[in-house]
Amino acid sequence: MRYGMNPHQAAHEVNGNKPLTVINGEPSYINYLDALNAWQLVIEARDAVKNPVAASFKHVSPAGVATTGLLDECTCETWGLSVTENNSLVSAYVRARDADPKSSFGDVIAVSESVDHEFAEFVMRVVADAIVAPSFEPGVVAKLAAKKSGSFLIFESDRKYTPPEWETRDIFGMRFEQQRDTSPISATLLGREEIEKRQTVDALLSLVTLRYTQSNSVTLAHHGICIGIGAGQQSRVDCVRLAAAKARTWWLRRHPTVRELNRIDGMTRQDRLNWQIRFAEGAMTALQLRDFTLLFGPEAAEDFLSTSWRDAWLTSLTGLTLASDGFLPFRDSVDYASEIGVSMIIEPGGSIRTPEVREAAHELNIKHVETGLRLFHH
User: What is the DSSP string of 326-343?
Assistant: First the structure.
């Protein structure tokens, strides 16, 4: 390996039987962790939802996960695409990357299907560090290998690889073993309640995503996209708040006021995206607001300071599915979920306060599903 967690740490592989082969580049320890987690996520999600899946991974958690599907006008504008409905692999990754494009900058891309030239062409246009896929069409590896001055990481995964039943980890001189989490994620976890097909896809995609997201974690899914992922928080309600903040930003980026900001000559796509995100969030420092005003004009600055258009637009974000990797310990998560357009909550249940949580969901007209399955990941 190039190095361990940090450049001053040496590292090397131990196990010779590998699920991934390095086709190009020299991975670090973190690159391997991202690639291994991302690959497990997309292939398991693909089996659960019966559609191709893509993920954008950063620091051992996904920034976005999505199936193939509809590309809305905002997504097409942002990423320079001309089609609005597309079942190609590109649509899955674009939807995943667009969920949180600020976090996806310099990501590890994971896809459940073979990479074709159309997908490779799109990857060449974005800032990414690596890709993991089950195979590559002829000529694709050579094309991708030229990215990042030849250092772009390409992992080829083995779809037939069978992982060992027990996993081992060494920490500070102690060695631990545990059984690999192989509990199936399927529609049977959702019980007998009548759930729309769209919500079933969102639910299964969310549950698999949680399995490979640093705990505590919460996902918000919408039409086959995890548009908000709150990961690695100590408090469950903070996971909900973080996921909600990301989902709100995703939705506000679709408002005409954000989409129609002046285009500045010479400004990169990522710089424009970052300004749109700050503008949508309503969060800028005094210096950023000064620069924003110089770039986009005083009228845009007035829109930034206004809250009315944001509040009105957010009321139209509805039908979200919230999934939690652990039980909701208090009704505060449900109350917060009701304010961000959640219509279904999926959680393990089993808390002494689960009856209170269940009652809160009923009171707020939110479907509440208890899976009995905790999905912690550390």
Answer: S---STHHHHHHHTTTEE
Instruction: Let me know if 378 is a catalytic residue.
Output: yes
Question: What does the DSSP 8-state code read for residue 262?
Answer: P
Whether 20-179 and 181-378 share one fold: the answer is: yes
> Angle, nearest 10°, between helix axes 89-99 and 236-252?
110
Decide: 195 and 203 in contact? Cβ < 8 Å.
yes
C-alpha angle 2-270-267 in degrees, rounded to nearest 5: 125
- Does the model's pTM come out above 0.90? yes
What residue segments make up the domains of the chain, in order of their start? 20-179, 181-378
Taking only the tens place, the pLDDT of each residue in 268-297 is: 999 999 999 999 999 999 999 999 999 999
24 catalytic? Reply is no
For residue 15, the model assigns a pLDDT of 74
What does the radius of gyration of the chain's CA atoms come to, in whole angstroms? 21
Domain 181-378 adopts which CATH fold?
Cytidine Deaminase; domain 2 (3.40.140)
Strand 367-370 and strand 342-347: pairing? parallel
d(CA 79, CA 94): 8
Task: Kindly state the tokens that stand for 142.
Answer: 């050579």
Residue 261: how many CB atoms within 10 A of its CB? Answer: 18
CA distance 191 to 193: 6
Catalytic annotation present for 148 = no
Active-site annotation holds for 59? yes
Q: Which candidate in 24, 31, 37, 58 is catalytic?
A: 58
| Lowest mean pLDDT, pick from 11-20, 100-109, 355-364 | 11-20
Alpha-carbon distance values, 288 to 37, 103, 137 (Å): 36, 19, 44
The answer to whether the CB of 59 falls within 8 A of the CB of 34 is: yes
Give the span between the Cα atoms of 261 and 84, in whole angstroms.
21
What is d(CA 88, CA 221) in angstroms, rounded to the nearest whole number?
A: 20
306, two tokens: 């206004």
Catalytic residue among 8, 160, 197, 378: 378
- Burial of 338: CB neighbours in 10 Å, binned 0-12, 13-18, 19+: middle
Domain 20-179 sits in CATH at 3.40.140.20
Q: Cα(first)–Cα(last) distance of the chain, in Å?
A: 22
Q: Is pLDDT at 37 greater than 80 in this prediction?
A: yes
Which residue is catalytic, options 18, 59, 148, 367?
A: 59
